[in-house]
Amino acid sequence: MNKTLFENGLIITVDDRDSVYRRGYLLVEDDRIAAVGEGDYTGDRTGIAVVDADGKAVLPGIVDAHTHVAGSLFKGLLEDDPNGFYGFALPMEGQLTPEDVYHLSRLGAWECMQAGVTTINEIYHYVLSVAKAVDEVGLRAVISQNIVDVDIGALRYNDYTRYPAKGEAFVEDNIRLIEEYHGKDNGRITCRFGPHATDTVSMELAKKCAELGKKHGVGFHTHVAQSQREVALLKEAYGLTPVEFLRETGLLGDHLMAAHCIYTTPGDVELLAKSGTHLLHCTEGLGRNGDFPPMKEMFAAGVHVVLGTDWLTMDPWTNMRFGVALNRHHGVDYETASARGMLRRSTIEPARALGLGDKVGSLEAGKQADVILMDITGPNLTPMFHDPVVTLVYNACRRDVSDVMVAGKFTVRDRALQTVDVKEVMKNGQKVAYDVYGRHVATLS
Ligand SMILES: [Zn+2]
Question: Which is nearest to 67 in space by CA: 345, 261, 282?
Answer without folding.
Answer: 282
